[in-house]
Amino acid sequence: MLHPSNRNPSPEEGNSCFKWLLYISNIIALVAGLALVLSLMIVMVNYKEYIELLGDNATWIIALIVISVAIIMVFIAIFGCCGVSSRNTNLLIVYIVIVSTLMVGLVIGTVVAWMYQDDAIETVEENMKEKMEEYSPGDRREGGLTMVWDEVQISYECCGIKELGDWGKYNPSYSRKSTITKYPESCKRNDSDSHPFVDGCLAKIDRSIKDNVWVIGGIVFTIILYLLISLLLVSITIMSINKHRRRLYTQEQQTLLQQELQAMPYRATTVPRV
């Protein structure tokens, strides 16, 4: 006797529309995962000096999180495509577990990041103090800390960490009493400008990040929405596969019963006369 779980279902089983949508969503997950890794590599290579200025530890933590999400999305795509193509409900259940875990992790990570954002700024501030000590006036090396500090101050129109007086506090070149200039030339718009920037760079960077927090939140929301849609599609697909298997099993049982009835020897029966 055949059992529905041991039979290979026909290719027509399930709802083809939902299965194709699931295929497309898995391809999107695969492309998005690879794009995340590629984008992270580009950022880490092109902006490594800025990363060093703001803090290596925090940056590598963010990089690890992004890579983990990307790897999970690739696994989601693999399990999803394999599960749909083979009509394997076990793979699709694993798919549901992975997607649910990622979704919960994203929600928890977003809440934790929001709660500890002030601590992250304090860590960046301490790292900027350390890097300020390494600033060397006149150093024009490409990618050096001096050039990075100058680019940050010019682009954000800021000076120092919290104020221009930070240069005299943390950098030996500007803390000597004999030093006339108490801050780098990059604290001014140009050489002829005698008025330096008064805002600190930390506040400008913090404001820039907060101005883009809705973009980051939108990306996270989009990922969570995609995961919810994927869960819906794979759940419908599993129900469709199971429904087809039950119908197929019922038909097989009816066929076997008919065969057994046909194989029984014919017995003539006589009706007794009253």
Automatic annotation (TrEMBL):
Its main location: membrane. The keyword Transmembrane helix applies. InterPro entries: Tetraspanin/Peripherin, Tetraspanin_animals, Tetraspanin_EC2_sf. CDD domains: tetraspanin_LEL. It is found in: Membrane. Disulfide bonds join 158-187. The chain crosses the membrane at residues 20-47, 59-80, 92-116, 213-238. The keyword Isomerase does not apply. It comes from the Eukaryota. It is a multi-pass membrane protein. GO terms for cellular component: plasma membrane. Keywords: Disulfide bond, Membrane, Transmembrane, Transmembrane helix. PANTHER family: TETRASPANIN. Belongs to the tetraspanin (TM4SF) family. This is Tetraspanin. It comes from Meganyctiphanes norvegica (Northern krill).
